[in-house]
Amino acid sequence: GRRPCERESERAPSRGHRLTPADDELYQRTRLTVLQPESPDTFFIEGYTSRGFTVSGDLVVGPCAILPRAILQWNVGSYRDISLESLSLFRLLEPHIEILVVGTGDRVERLHPTMLKQMRECGIAVEVQDTPNACATFNFLTSEKRVAAAGLIPPRGTYMGV
Fold first, then answer.
1. Residue of 57 and 39 predicted with greater confidence
2. Helices in the chain by DSSP H: which ranges?
3. Which one, out of 84, 87, 101, 141, has a CA that is 20 to 30 A from the CA of 18?
4. Principal place where this protein is found (predicted)?
């Protein structure tokens, strides 16, 4: 078994174990918004509906991953799909994030302890909250200049103006 923190480039290109496109193939296609490297801006979650999120003026449909420099669609249907595989996106980031906020929808759902432990071993603290709180936490962390990312599943309710 490989260490969960290894960078993709250190791995043999075997795809035998994958049922879906490789992360890099998937995320290249679904990249939505990218900040310029020198931009002082950070993303701010302005609101959400059951269909998606408004982040810094852009509507992102469905579950999304908000990274320090990009917003991507996150390929999970519900919190049950959150796995080490679907979190690999956050582990492979450069610069390395220090905290990941996961919004599991209307309620806080427990993620598997092994998964959280493996993220911690990669130096990433994981904060699991219901999505409305996760949005507020992410905004707070970025306003404090923390290197944070968020994985958010839309809740059923609607809120504009987090």
1. 57
2. 23-30, 84-91, 113-121, 131-143
3. 101
4. mitochondrion
